[in-house]
């Protein structure tokens, strides 16, 4: 076992000196999670660790990686599907985590081939609501009407107009808002991890986005800052939406909010607005505001490249069209027949 660990650390093909076999997946996963993936974001590492612990280790953790076959992978996927009733995003993440672990094993010549490559990808659940929720203008107004506090109305409009993600929203500081140019400099995002706590990192994409804000939102944010001046929370380095941290028994306006708390905040506002599904759950999320804003812009004939820039996508990215412009095709079809007039 010692020889195997030494071989893993040096990148050589691992063969146990006594058994002549490759290490158990459990041992290899520990190595991946603690050393190899240091370049990944803390949230991604947390997601893979959770996927391994809950969905991979109970079924395959005791198996030696060299003995895992495509048949074993297929049986494992079928077991997860039977437990969940369908292919969920949770299962997809577990498959992604295992694929990454075994790809690394191939790269370091622990195994000759990744057994997952011999298994057809499980079909995604076509009924999953993820990526398909866009609010109507009436629903947006309904949500805004439910925002009695300026802070809540401001965060809803920032998510809608600027397309900021929740981690980017809670990372915003007053110095990031350029009131004169009506721009927001989005350079960082905050992630909450189990191992490292709350971590500030470079935003997704690796570059600073600079979305525009409307004159109305600019005035709203200016008024919100004036309200915040009553507390010591309006300094340039303080968060626009501070957390609930405390210092010396008083609220610390310089503390950042947890991204999940911001998501919960929006969910409560959506519930208050009465935008619920048949189960009484919120029909939309904070991220759906980002998608809604992009779809409204597309309806207003804004170029896809401009929408992508507002969302912080890299130039030429297909992400904008594939995942964020989600209006029904009816508006596009209406535009097609608008030029036909037989009267």
Textual characterization of the structure:
This protein is mostly helical. The chain folds into 2 domains: 2-118, Tyrosine recombinase, N-terminal domain (DNA polymerase, domain 1), CATH 1.10.150; 137-332, Orthogonal Bundle (hpI Integrase, Chain A), CATH 1.10.443. The chain has helices spanning 2-10, 25-36, 42-60, 70-84, 89-107, 137-145, 150-162, 166-171, 215-228, 259-272, 286-299, 304-311, 319-324, 330-337; strands at 177-178, 183-184, 188-193, 197-202, 246-247, 250-251. The strands form 3 sheets. A two-stranded antiparallel ribbon has the order 1-2.
The biggest sheet, with number of strands, parallel, antiparallel or mixed sense and barrel status, is:
2 strands, antiparallel
What's the total helix number?
A: 14
Series of secondary-structure elements, N-terminal to C-terminal = HHHHHHHHEEEEHEEHHHHH
Using the coordinates above, name the CATH class of the largest domain. Answer: Mainly Alpha
Name the CATH homologous superfamily of the largest domain: Intergrase catalytic core
The parts where pLDDT drops under 50 for at least 5 residues are 1-19, 126-131
Strand content: 5-15%
Query: From the alpha-carbon coordinates, what is the Rg to the nearest angstrom?
Result: 24 Å
- CATH domain fold name of the largest domain: hpI Integrase, Chain A
What is the helix fraction of residues, given as a range? Answer: 40-55%
Known CATH architecture of the largest domain: Orthogonal Bundle
The shape is elongated
Overall pLDDT: 81
**How many structural units, i.e. domains?**
2
Tell me the strand order in the biggest sheet.
1-2
Number of strands: 6
Distance between the termini: 85 Å
Q: How would you classify the helix and strand content by structural class?
A: mainly alpha
